Amino acid sequence: MAPTNTAIPGLLSLPRLTTLLASLIVAVGAGTNYVRFSAQPSPSFSLNQLPSSAYSPQLAARLHISHTQLNIVGLAGNVGVYISGPFWGRIVDSRGPRLPLAFAFVFLFFGYTGIRHFYDVGLEGDTTLSTFSLGLLIACSFMTGAGGNAAFTGAVNSTAKSFPDKARATTTGIVLSGFGLSAFFFSTLAHILFPGDTSSLLLLLSLGTALTAIIGFFLVRAIPLSAAEDSDHMVVPTVAAEAEATIFDHGNDSHTPLLDEEAAPLAEDPSAGSGRTSSHSRSRSRSKQDAFEGPNIYGRALWINPDFWLLFAILSLLSGTGLMYINNVGSMSQALFAKGNPTYDEVEASQWQATQVSTISIMNFAGRIVIGLISDNVKNRFGFPRSYSLVLVSSLFFCSQLLARQIADVTNLWKASALVGFSYGTIFGLFPTVCIEFFGLSHFSENWGYLSLSPLVGGNLFSIAFGRNLDAHEPGESTAAATVERFVAHQCLEGRSCYVATLGLTGTACFAAILLSGLAAWRERRKIIAATAARPRVVWGGY
């Protein structure tokens, strides 16, 4: 027998709040893949000068590996995050979050433990790391990325399924914010507890991330919704639909029998593809609101769906812009700091870099929460789908690139970093719920896994463009440049001219994303109007 609504926990019940809090804790432990990028001091720093908020430079120094090899190690972690998404998503959709969380514990613990082992052993003299050892180090980095994504996927999926549509963007935004704050949380904690101790930072990452996975294993689970809450996302959210419900909601004072209550199928969505079953295009209930089944698009139907590629392109352009900035803000701040500065101070330069990273992390956290509140409010109060908020997010990114182009002093770079961080947070706070609205909740995690492959495209493209732009500017011949060059090898010292062309490229990409976001919102509006027109009408008969 199906459980009654009285047996199902309420919206603010202890089981739902426990899942939300535990999912947030899991997310905080899942985003540590970016701790390695928390600061990028120059290679000439001594180990005792390097801040404890990053371990990539220290690892490179201990193992005598090149910048190219270090980037490969870092790339392995990113690949682990993105490539594993569809795999973990399919498992979570079909079996729940516990199995991925178990794998997350194993991958995170042994991944960071392995990296720590390499760091502690180190290399002496002029010896170099063997190919086999480098392969193991790359594998450990991959495990940290894949493990973090396993935990994160389980946490977001459980939260999305535990809260009704009216609160889904807000609650998932809270969980997503934990992922954005992860690097800042662990690097700050390590700086307080073990200042300057990279081995202890890696131990903290090993034990801390594994502990969050254990907490999630026992406490994170999807709490079923009541029939009314579960159908919230199926109600056509338009003023026209509300008016139509009012028109056909007549009182039956004459006790006239209802002659025809059969629900008409939804208008066929031209973008749904062949994977959308007919059972998901018909009315599921006979309530006064005439709630409908939401979409259920996955597998082959997802890949041939124009909306999937539209969202893929938008996310690629925006996330690629954000990743380019995040991964290279150290070089940007270094170029601005060195411009016209004859007394280059390495410690101060590192502090400016760390300032940008902290600003980005905090604003990333804020953006994920704020966009959830905004998109829920826009939908619940005004009846607009969440895809309308894509235009806002794209516009924020466009403004961030315009602002970054204008900044010529490192003391003002935090303004651009704050806007980029906030914008980056809004994308990943909004897109999961948009993915649900477009393709349905049943296969959400698998679909989101495929959609989240898009940052690999935009991120690599724009980062390569940034690197080439930087390489094209040789160090100047001024006294300041000559002074700085001995401290910072292969670094452009010409201020914003070192990278402004790349910001022009990303600015153009963000403007294109605005146009594509408008197209996505228009397509969603068109589907809603078609669904509204096809809503079942009650035919009343009389004697």
Can you walk through the features of this model?
By secondary structure, the chain is an all-alpha fold. The protein folds into two domains: 13-235, MFS general substrate transporter like domains (Growth Hormone, Chain: A), CATH 1.20.1250; 308-528, MFS general substrate transporter like domains (Growth Hormone, Chain: A, Up-down Bundle). Helices cover 66% and strands 1% of the residues. The chain contains 19 helices and two strands. It has helices at residues 14-30, 56-63, 67-83, 85-95, 98-121, 131-162, 165-193, 198-219, 227-230, 239-247, 300-303, 306-338, 346-382, 389-406, 413-439, 444-451, 454-471, 479-485, 500-533, and strands at 258-260, 539-540. It has a two-stranded antiparallel ribbon with strand order 1-2. The radius of gyration is 26 Å and the shape is globular. It starts with 13 loop residues before the first helix and ends with a strand. One of its GO terms (cellular component) is fungal-type vacuole membrane. InterPro entries: MFS (IPR011701), MFS_trans_sf (IPR036259). It is a multi-pass membrane protein. One of its GO terms (molecular function) is transmembrane transporter activity. Its main location: membrane.
